[in-house]
Amino acid sequence: IQVNNEHPKPLIWVATADSILEKVARGRVALQAIKQN
Questions:
Q1: CA 30 from centre of chain
Q2: What is the pTM of this model?
Q3: b/e string for 16-33 if b means 16 or more Cβ within 10 A?
Q4: What would the pLDDT profile of 20-31 be if each residue is shown by its tens digit?
Q5: What is the per-residue pLDDT across 5-19, written as a single tens digit (0 to 9) for each?
Q6: What is the pLDDT of residue 31?
Q7: Using alpha carbons only, what angle is made at residue 19 by residues 14 and 21, rounded to the nearest 5 degrees?
């Protein structure tokens, strides 16, 4: 950790909000399918 802290890299956000929300929606559908079975 100390080595990483000496040379930190900035977080670069590459996903769009829409793509994240689509993944959340797919995850919810999958969880509902699991709960029903």
A1: 16
A2: 0.58
A3: eeeeeeeeeeeeeeeeee
A4: 999 999 999 999
A5: 888 888 898 999 999
A6: 94
A7: 125
Residue 20: both structure tokens together: 């994240």
Tokens of 23: 């993944």
Structure tokens at 6: 């000496």
Tokens 């670069």, located at residue: 12
Q: Token pair 């969880």 is at which residue?
A: 31
Query: In the block, which residue shows the tokens 């930190």?
Result: 8
Upper half-sphere CA count for residue 17 (Cβ side, 13 Å):
0
